[in-house]
């Protein structure tokens, strides 16, 4: 896990959309999806409910959200 993956994760959670997060971060949507897929594989957990159109977080995603925010705040 690296900080760029956490930035992508937070952007998706904030925008509630992979596409809007990609636009905001000036990246392609496939690049965003790949980064999240790798993060999920590392963690062994799904972070987003992909059956939902609003980019809602799973329970694991909600747990990671607060930790990711703190880690990025510490970096800044």
Task: Give a verbal description of the structure.
By secondary structure, the protein is mostly helical. 68% of the residues lie in helices and 0% in strands. The protein has helices spanning 3-15, 18-24, 29-43, 59-75. Helix 1 (3-15) crosses helix 4 (59-75) and helix 2 (18-24) crosses helix 3 (29-43). The longest helix is centred in the last third of the chain and has 17 residues, at 59-75. It is globular, with a radius of gyration of 11 Å. The model has no long low-confidence stretch (mean pLDDT 94).
Largest sheet: none
- In round numbers, the mean pLDDT is 94
Q: What spatial form do the alpha-carbon principal axes imply?
A: globular
Structural class: mainly alpha
How much of the sequence is in beta strands?
A: under 5%
End-to-end distance, in Å? 18 Å
Radius of gyration: 11 Å
Q: What is the overall number of helices?
A: 4
Q: How many beta-strand runs?
A: 0
In terms of quaternary structure, the protein is single chain
Model regions low in confidence, pLDDT < 50 over at least 5 residues: none
- Sequence of secondary-structure elements: HHHH
Relative helix content: 55-70%
Which properties best describe this structure?
76 residues, mainly alpha, 0% strand, globular, 4 helices
Question: In a nutshell, what does this entry contain?
Answer:
The chain is mainly alpha-helical and 76 residues long. It has helices at residues 3-15, 18-24, 29-43, 59-75.
What topology does this entry show?
Layout: H1 3-15, H2 18-24, H3 29-43, H4 59-75
Helix pairs in contact: 1-2, 1-4, 2-3
